[in-house]
Amino acid sequence: MMPDPLLPAASTPASDDCACHGPQGPEQTIGSLLARLLPGLSAVEGNALCPLRQARGRVLAEDLVTDQPIPSFRRSAMDGYALRQEDCPDGAASLSLPVRGRVAAGDSGLGLPDGPGAVRIFTGAALPPDCDRVVMQEDCDSDGSSVLIRRIPAAGANVRLPGDDLAAGSVALTAGTRLDARHIACAASLGLSHVPVRRRLRVAVLSTGSELTEPGQPLPPGAIYNSNRFLLATRLEDAGFEVIDLPAVSDDPAQVQAALRAAAACDAVITSGGVSVGEEDHVKGAVLAVGGRIDHWRLAIKPGKPVAVGALPGPEGQETLFLGLPGNPNAVFVTLMLIGLPLLRALAGTPYRPPLSFPVRLTEGFRRKTGREEYVSVTLHPGPDGIPLASRSGHGSSAQQSALVAADALMIVPAACGQADSGMVFPALPIA
Ligand SMILES: Nc1nc2c(c(=O)[nH]1)N[C@H]1C(S)=C(S)[C@@H](COP(=O)(O)OP(=O)(O)OC[C@H]3O[C@@H](n4cnc5c(N)ncnc54)[C@H](O)[C@@H]3O)O[C@H]1N2
Ligand code: MOO
After folding, report:
1. Nearest residue (CA) to ligand 2, atom 3
2. Given 3.40.640.10, 3.40.50.1820, 3.90.105.10, 3.20.10.10, which CATH number is that of 48-69+168-198?
3. Which residues form the MoaB/Mog domain (predicted)?
4. Cα 21 vs. chain centroid, distance in angstroms?
5. Which ligand is nearest to the CA of 251?
6. What is the pTM of this model?
7. Which of 24, 275, 281, 305 best tests ligand 2's pocket when mutated (most atoms within 8 Å of CB)?
8. Correct CATH for 358-430 of 2.40.340.10, 2.40.110.10, 2.40.280.10, 3.30.70.100
9. How far apart are CA 357 and CA 410, in angstroms?
10. What's the complex ipTM?
11. Quick one: pLDDT band at residue 9, thresholds 50, 70, 90?
């Protein structure tokens, strides 16, 4: 059977995907969770034509096909002289020709008059129809009226052919591409002033916790500042989504339910906190109380074990993706990156691509509990053999935000590894 391109490469069959059975039931791997969820997600409806200068971060709704070859005419790749085949004798060491024309970028094609001759030409200019090569001016001496060519170029030298970049009829940009400067420039080179894009995904962000105080306010005893709200909103905006930034709610079932009901009008709802097993963890219960469901809970990763994925009933009968992330800030960062963003991108119309890791070498060993794959915040330094050296940037707590702030990458320690020794090589994911 051909692998489904949507599914993560590391996906495992649904029947045996439990990395660990805790008292609350199985914990899933990231690969198995994405493999289950991604095929069921389809992109939001609603396309628009977007001016190029506003298209950054938007998702292309259709393939862009070029009807013209790019470039559309033969042009010079160098400043120099355009030559005809018949003026370039085989095996000659050098050649002197009268200069019989001049063509700069933007001039329309110019033919050579009869008789031997070269045409002064500049980079990007249309090649005269009867010429087939260009000699760089560094290989010539000229007084303006004639040119001595010291190195005779081969046929086709320094000529860009029509379709050299893209042949007519080829796909220049594929549907689902999240547009950055490269893609926008490519669309411009096709002559497009607007591109078809998908509607921007609307994602509601709700932080829960009676201990939360907004930055700028005095901090009462026992309280902390709400940082997850800013982490989530900023990261989601960076990813190109429209963020509906809701005020935090206390650990109160009625408040959480009311906020979820309102948030369900968006395409997806992400909460932080209140998703674990304590009596003050009301998020999963609130999802059920408003008529939603929890399909998955608990991942075999550290940080980020208690992650709930499900759906909320939307106001028009549609299902709104629900993602309940844990409260610890580093768990929010990791689970948003590894679970949240892939799911949201699928809703936004971007096909899943597994993250690309690179190898790093651990500098100082540490012991750890087995059973969960761990994403360790590390700083990187150049290594003698080209493999970066990785040092843990904290003590491994998912509440230690300073470790994440200092980190260059997340080093991935496999679930079965109980002793990560100095010198061992692990895969890592870049943070940015
Ligand atoms: N008996 C158990 N207790 C816990 C377990 C467990 O399996 N059994 N799992 C632990 C793990 S792992 C995590 S992660 C946390 C997640 O719990 P919650 O999702 O219920 O999160 P909270 O308890 O609400 O908060 C955890 C921690 O994070 C701080 N927090 C919460 N929201 C914010 C915010 N917006 N900005 C900054 N910091 C926030 C909160 O004050 C707590 O310190 O559960 C463990 N417990
Ligand atoms: O998932 Mo928790 O983040 O391990 O502390």
Report:
1. 303
2. 3.90.105.10
3. 204-346
4. 33
5. 1
6. 0.90
7. 305
8. 2.40.340.10
9. 9
10. 0.97
11. very low
